[in-house]
Amino acid sequence: MEFRDLKQQYQLHKKEMDAAMKDVLVRADFIQGEQVARLEKSLAEYVGMKHCISCANGTDALQLALMVWNVGMGDAVFVPDFTFFSSGEVVPVTGATPVFVDIDRDTYNISPTSLERAIRHVMDNTDLTPKVIIAVDLFGQPADFGKIRRLADKYSLLVLEDAAQGFGGKIGGKMACSFGDIATTSFFPAKPLGCYGDGGAVFTDNHKWAELLRSYCVHGKGMDKYENVRIGMNSRLDTLQAAVLLEKLKFFDAEVAACNRIAEEYTRRLKGFVKVPVIQEGIRSSWAQYTICLPDREKREHVIRALKECTIPSAVYYRKPMHMQDAFGENVLTEAGCQVTKEICECCLSLPMHPYLEMEEVGKIAECVIQTCG
Ligand SMILES: *Cc1c(COP(=O)(O)O)cnc(C)c1O
User: Fold this and answer.
1) Which of 132, 139, 225, 355 could form a disulfide linkage to 221, CB 3.0–4.6 angstroms apart?
2) What is the distance in A from the centroid of ligand 1 to the CA of 198?
């Protein structure tokens, strides 16, 4: 059994995928081929935003957004304490200070209550200027953007939606990647929409920011790439990856629907035995991960071992709160120690999740979890 079965996806769509890749090989327009612009148009339409700027990966996408907003020394950027490293990593790169905020126990997403406390703490006790909220759509579920937007308005902050795991999710009729002033995603192979290598994209409705993004991601280009008007990056999406993504976008909704059926089956079987994921009313998750909580760390290790004995892979996302990662050193602030994040890091466990998982396999996995800790 695979944790996320990319081999099966390729076998099922081999013909179209091979043809799409071959087309690029024949034309040899590996950089900025016509598929790149076509993909950007399709993605912008899919999420309902005016501009999509593709780039090399989801980490660069976040950094590009902060560059456009001129985030730097003396600025505070609020980041959930429970997320992949990138969401926090990009902040010190700009010179700004990350402020780690606790999460909601049910959704695992940034807690609006903790967020407001963190903003007030920064205003009252530091010389930093609160500037940006990075809200992550963790495990596929969009963050609580109603409340986040109200706080952003109240304290004049910008919202950066990190939808690396959330692409394909929805709140009501609105798609993930449409909630931030700028939103980003990743096409890393194991993400909901993955390519055959690294890839990413940035979305915005703001024309000026879109123009800046296009400049920053190609060496700060002006009229052309040999006229450089600002310090930028080299962060482009390869034509080959764009061609792969254009094909994959055609069956992406069917895959998200399949993941939702699988998640329902997991929850139906596991509910009452372990803490199952909570998806808020009116929200569709893209199910980047199906993450349960066990009673404690020891029980989690038992379950991991029992699953392994049945050749079922599992993974712990995440073992460590961000504020405790050595890389940040002294340069971190947290909101009251982020207690919920600490607890969740001790007991969370992600189970195999992908569109090609059989219901029988879901049954077998659930049975194994229940027998070990039920
Ligand atoms: C994967 C991920 C990223 C980074 O994406 P890359 O394409 O791997 O650089 C950023 N944020 C979150 C929440 C992620 O899961």
Assistant:
1) 225
2) 10
- Tokens for 281? 């009313």
Supply 335's token pair. 């909101």
Residue tagged 């002033």 (tokens): 181
pTM reported for the whole predicted model: 0.98
Whether the bond into 317 is cis, omega within 30 of 0:
no
CA 77, 291, 47, 283 torsion-angle sign? negative
> Could you tell me the distance, in angstroms and rounded to a whole number, from the CA of residue 276 to the centre of ligand 1?
24
C-alpha of residue 86 to centroid of ligand 1, in Å: 6
Measured from the Cα of 188, ligand 1's closest atom is 7
Chain segment 213-229, per-residue pLDDT in tens: 999 999 999 988 889 99
Over the stretch 242-290, which tens digit does the pLDDT of each residue have?
Answer: 999 999 999 999 999 999 999 999 999 999 999 999 999 999 999 999 9
Q: Which of 132, 124, 170 is nearest to 148 (CA)?
A: 132
Could you tell me if 77 and 96 are in contact, meaning their C-beta atoms sit under 8 angstroms apart? yes
Q: What is the pLDDT of residues 52-100, one digit of tens each?
A: 999 999 999 999 999 999 999 999 999 999 999 999 999 999 999 999 9
